[in-house]
Design a protein that fits this description.
This protein is α/β, with parallel strands linked by helices. 35% of the residues lie in helices and 19% in strands. The chain has a single domain (4-233), classed as Rossmann fold. It binds the ligand O=C1O[C@H](COP(=O)(O)O)[C@@H](O)[C@H](O)[C@H]1O. It holds the Pfam family Glucosamine_iso.
């Protein structure tokens, strides 16, 4: 089990400012060290106030590549598309925001292979992976279902894959493409951002359960070696 540090904030605004500051620091460090930065950012809803704040930072955005940690297989522009939300915020800054599912398709496995091929062209490992956690304990789009084992235990070089959640989450009932556990665990920095006591309870339980956890986030955290920062507000 890795070293996990909880960071607690009074409210969502404080949380957003802190997470934005930490992401900015990672990007600046990568730009100083290498002249470019590649980061994966969670989708859903929780992290978007932090992204709005981050976008105000004075950075050489043209040298920053952003990929979603996962994507719902929906057309680009759909309100449920994670990359569409990221693109609205970071494209105007000049960042490269990479769709990993360029077109909606019925073949989620093929979508996963295509996302994996796109990821192979990126500088690797990721400078940062920021994860969210669903109320059901999923993270990125690693869900229980027929692809769970492949997402957790597939070959190390597999960076992304297609996933059919079972059951489909009611708030976004779509097949998905997600970073694999190996890709997440290989990141140079790993952060989690959540809000609310319910998600905190799930995350604490998942961490306690460790490698035998039924929650995807528990299985991932049981396997990472780098320290993990969890940012939380009620
Ligand atoms: O479906 C998803 O859910 C998780 C959690 O989203 P949140 O809005 O409850 O924070 C998210 O991290 C993931 O990227 C997304 O596709």
């Amino acid at each position: 089990m890795t070293e996990i540090e909880w960071w607690e904030y009074d409210d969502a605004a404080e949380l957003a400012a802190a997470v934005a500051g930490d992401i900015q620091f990672v990007i600046e460090s990568a730009l100083d060290a290498r002249g470019s930065a590649v980061i994966a950012l969670a989708g859903g809803r929780t992290p978007f106030p932090a992204y709005e704040k981050l976008a105000q930072a004075k950075l050489d955005w043209k040298k920053v590549t952003i990929v979603p940690s996962d994507e719902r297989i929906v057309p680009l522009g759909d309100p449920k598309s994670n990359v569409t939300g990221l693109a609205k915020i970071f494209l105007p800054k000049g960042a490269r925001v990479m769709p990993i599912v360029p077109a909606a398709t019925d073949d989620y496995k093929a979508a996963g292979r295509s996302a994996d091929a796109l990821m192979q062209d990126l500088h690797w490992p990721l400078d940062l992976c920021l994860l969210g956690v669903g109320g059901d304990g999923h993270t990125a789009s690693i869900f229980p279902g027929p692809d769970f084992d492949e997402a957790l235990n597939g070959p190390r070089e597999r960076r992304a894959l297609g996933v059919m959640p079972d059951p489909l989450p009611p708030e976004a009932p779509f097949p998905r493409v997600t970073l694999s556990r190996a890709a997440i665990a290989a990141s140079k920095a790993l952060m989690i951002m959540i809000t609310g006591q319910d998600k905190r309870d799930v995350l604490e339980k998942a961490i306690d359960q460790g490698v035998s956890s039924a929650y995807p986030i528990g299985r991932i955290l049981a396997d990472v070696e780098l320290p993990v920062d969890i940012h939380w507000a009620p």
